[in-house]
Amino acid sequence: xxxxxxxxxxxxxxxxAGFILLRLRSTLGKGADNMPMKARFTQAQxxxxxxxxIIEDEIKQDTTKFDEKIFIKGAxxxxxxxxxxxxxxxxxxxxxxxxxxxxxxxxxVIKERESKKISSQMSFIGIxxxxxxxxxxxxxxxxxxxxxxSEIVNCLKSDKxxxxxxxxxxxxxxxxxxxxxxxxxxNDPTWYLTELSSEEETKH
Length: 204
Fold this sequence. Notes:
Largest sheet: 5 strands, antiparallel
Order of helices and strands: HHHHHEEEEE
CATH class of the largest domain: Alpha Beta
Oligomer: single chain
Number of domains: 2
């Protein structure tokens, strides 16, 4: 009788141990595949929220990359094109390089010269100095204030060839401060001129 009882005890203990193991496995031993849907979604959402800022920072670094050397090289080329085009009244060359508002101002001056039959005669000698004064950016939108110091011969003449303003034989040292703007996310490579001011002094 006692032997039978001991055998039954062993069977019962084995059944209880198996049941306990199953319960433990159901609560503690779940892998990702066995995880309830709600728990899996919460974990995935948590991982996404953690990695999303990192990815956004990497994208922002790529799209907001600003190379001063490349900018200065392009700005100098634009500077020469713009001042030559303005002197000649070349609207076609000016329009792609200016913001809409600034282009209207340039065109207004050109129209006034044309109506008065005044011609601008300008000789661009060269740029002596180019310097970035300020970089202002919000996200990927940049405004870059740039100083140009150049040597220019410039004068205005009437339709009879009389000098109205300036001296065709005098070299002027001109300091221009221009502001260019661009959204670096835009595929258009153009930096648009949006503001400008200038000073002149006679070179001795």
